[in-house]
Amino acid sequence: MSVIGYDLGNLSCYIAVARQGGIETIANEFSDRNTPCIVSLTSKERSIGSAAKTQIISNYKNTISNFKRLLGRPFDDPFVQNEMKDLPYKLSRTADGGVGVRVKYAGEDVEFSMAQVCGMLLTKLRSITEVNLKKPVQDCVLSVPSFFSEVQRRNLLAAARIANLNCLRLFNDTTAGKISTPCFPDPAYLLTFFQITKIFIIFFQITKLSIILPWLLKPKFKFHHMLSKNYVSNITYIMALAYGIYKQDLPAAEEKPRIIIFVDMGHSSLQVAAVAFNKGKLKVLATSFDPYLGGRDFDRLLFNHFADLFKDKYRIDVRTNKRAELRLLIECEKLKKQLSSNSGRMTLNIECLMDDKDVQGAMTSLNSCLCIYGWGLFNCYSFNHDYIIRTDFEALCAPLIQRVEKPLRTILQDAKLQSQDITSIEIVGGATRMPAVKSTIAEVFGMKVSTTLNADEAVARGCALQCA
Ligand code: ATP
Ligand code: MG
């Protein structure tokens, strides 16, 4: 039976299968390899993926998108509360305190847990795969962000079970696959963990400060990740695996390893890994991430810019009209992509955006101070022309671009690397297509970025490779 790799992104999913002669990515019923992470429910049916995308505006209350990050979180989690403000559909607290979604489905008010929604999406992915392979599919490898907690991972497994998928527990570094990996958890990490814990206990005993206790009891992100049982594959490891399999010219086992930095910036997060390669062997030296920085934050910045502009210029407040808000957000994403490939002048035009008004947006009349989305920083702009060019966009997004730097510098520190130790920087994820992101990565590491891996499909391919 074939084992399938599923890359479940916040925006889009990719499917890959290991077949004789290589890894193939599978297209959906619209001949598209990219299946949007969207579930739409109506009075008659549920549509998932590309079909659901067409309903994102017309049926916004019952169309669920951007849900991967809500999986396995408590409803009261500040992240959930913050996300809720921008979501067009209604979130609810499930009986066990988790996140649910309230929708109208088949004429009734229904609540689905996030695992159920994710299960629906995985069911669709399984059906796409089965149609393509013309046989039943069960075993799979799923991608998961490095920063997902144990509870989130378990919820993803529950979603896989709902979809009748058997998610293989393959990412166990103590056992070797085709490529051997360091034992997991790495003894060095364990040692550091125990040493640090010991220091904390001694410190606590000496100071008897009750304030330390809650802090100590709070799960520590990094250790939690490193020591957690890995049910599903770590995304950075998957990319490294995909790279290692294809590269034929790696140094022999006794030689100095080749060090590659992997950067994945998708819709909602940024993940970085430093990996040392020898023939038949890879070692993850360090990982770092910003779980709250992705392409969607750039869309939101543009959105805020134009929403404020249209308020002044056309006397319309798109924030008070969900349909107008969604349309503007979609146009902002399109504009962002155009600005990646085009350095010329552009404008944003939308017909009948709200109150029958056609709007045209540029970087104009915004000489006042703007609150920068997400950080609450203040910044002054003085764009004043009737078009948009890339440099305007980059100036607007400067605070986000600065945030890209931090996990990159952290990886150099944690892996104790200098730029001369690094052979290449491999970038994947849609948001790395932004020239400013690329140049920031190149600047931090002091070398050009490389795109050996397919930016969209690398993760799914790596998943399929795990069991090839
Ligand atoms: P995540 O990895 O965060 O869960 P994902 O895997 O679904 O999300 P990707 O498909 O890697 O995300 O990337 C999607 C993001 O990349 C979107 O924000 C999209 O707007 C952005 N993107 C895609 N192409 C371009 C482009 N040419 N220029 C700028 N941004 C782009
Ligand atoms: Mg991704």
From TrEMBL:
Cell compartments where the protein resides: Cytoplasm
A Gene Ontology cellular-component term: nucleus
Highest taxon above the source species: Eukaryota
GO MF annotation: an example: ATP-dependent protein folding chaperone
Major localisation: cytoplasm
Name listed for the protein in its UniProt record: Heat shock 70 kDa protein 4L
Keywords: ATP-binding, Cytoplasm, Nucleotide-binding, Phosphoprotein
Protein source organism: Ciona savignyi
Similarity remark: Belongs to the heat shock protein 70 family.
